[in-house]
Specification:
The protein has 14 helices and 23 strands. It is α+β, with helices and mostly antiparallel strands and about 550 residues long. The strands form five sheets. Strands 1, 2, 3, 9, 10, 11, 12, 19 and 21 form a nine-stranded mixed sheet that branches. Strands 20-18-13-22-23 form a five-stranded mixed sheet. Helix 12 runs antiparallel to helix 13. It is found in: Cytoplasm. Its cofactor is FAD. One of its GO terms (molecular function) is L-aspartate oxidase activity.
Amino acid sequence: MNNMIPQYLVDFDLSALPMVETDVLVIGSGIAGLFTAIKASGQQRVLMITKKSLLESNTRYAQGGIAAVIAEDDSPAYHLQDTLVAGAGLCRSEAVEVLVNEGPDGVKELIRLGTLFDLENGELALTQEGAHSHRRILHANGDATGYEIVRALAVEVNEHPGIEVWDEHFVVDLITDRDRGECIGALVQKDDGSQVFVKAQATVLCSGGAGQLYRYTTNPDVATADGVAMAYRAGAIVRDMEFIQFHPTSLCYPGAPRFLVSEAVRGEGAYLRNVKGERFMDRYHAQLELAPRDIVARAIVSEMESTNSTFVYLDITHEQPEMIKHRFPTIYETCMRYGLDMTTDWIPVAPAAHYMMGGVKTDLSGESSISRLFACGEVSSTGVHGANRLASNSLSEAIVFGRRIVDRIQSLSPLGSLQVRGTSTASVNMNSKIMKEQKPISERRLRLQKMMVRQVGLRRNGKDLQKAMDKLQQELQFFDLTLTHKEELEYANLLTCAWLVTSGALHREESRGAHYREDFPARDDIVWQKHSLQQREQAIVEELMS
């Protein structure tokens, strides 16, 4: 199978571009970007670039919380085991050990930086989510944990003299040195369309995930796979892109957005019911509503199909109204805005694309296969999540590996002088040939999103995946266009990521974690307990578990 996206390697005359120099370039402003910038700013100059604002990221919408061992009856060993089980045999145990052992100190640092987690009787309040054996989820303002973390970190970033922030800027592509093969910075487009070369001693991708690949997603509009696509074009290895997590419960109601209804609602006792009013999770898993997300999501789809419905219900009406309002104020108020009262009404929900488990392959210091290029947060593949992310591990992963990235950056030798020319695969400088009958970007994007839902969604099969590949092969002619606007560049990134996800899904002929093949419904540890690696101009490579 040909899994290679057309590339147009471009030599840049760097002297022809305005240049800005910094020590550390951070691309993205979620928890990974903010925390990494703060840690790096102690000794180095930091430039943070965000295509919207500091407060617009996936982190902002994270409701449930952050997982860390706090309770006396809990331990890193329990957290390790829960993560490995959820990851369905593809977690990197060394990375998970780093997470569970260093996560509690990371939480303490968030508190030191001003994050106000909820308290009960003067102690940190903890809740339980799906596939966790203990209550270890810290939360803030009931169900607005992500927003509180971003708020606190953004205040610190804005007040720090060593951090410069460029809002409303778009990173077009990474720039690598032609001779040394190192990442030397990025090509950045300003809101007026002009471009600048940012030279950096180290570049950190913190650009989030790819939720906008799918028509139904809990992700904001900014989640367009920019980091993965840029890293892939630069020649970095990406890993396990076939594993896309669908959150089981997003609001599914006429006129309402696909608003995330946190897993913590089920953690606090909510039931799932089909449209007949029947609880059904006992037919699918012993942990009922707290089964791993992939199992719950597919169970919901099965119930929707068997009852000829487009949703199921989430029912927490048996709990005390005051508890519901206090614990889930954001969800309660959002539902009320559309005439749904959580305390008395069953809430219609359905699965939606939520999290990308794969990403830019990194080592335990967060460094990619390209020297001086790092990745942190959802854009990265550290090995923590395996085939299925354990709930609330992602925020913890961002702070743990953000700190490790900074430690590694501080050990780098100076970049030194550059050649006059650098190499990139910048979309903005691709072939200028104009295609006939160009369709609007909005139409192209919606068509891609619908295709991904239908053919590369929760349940997959070889026939549909091949159809998707054929359609993507035709659409790759889009790369023959001159791309200048942000919407065009975002679509190019989504198209790149769609190819990576689809080719990875077609290659993996088994079902594991979030990747489910109807034509290969069994998990096959003998043949497939290994990672899928994809790199520019190379076929998929299988990496055995270490």
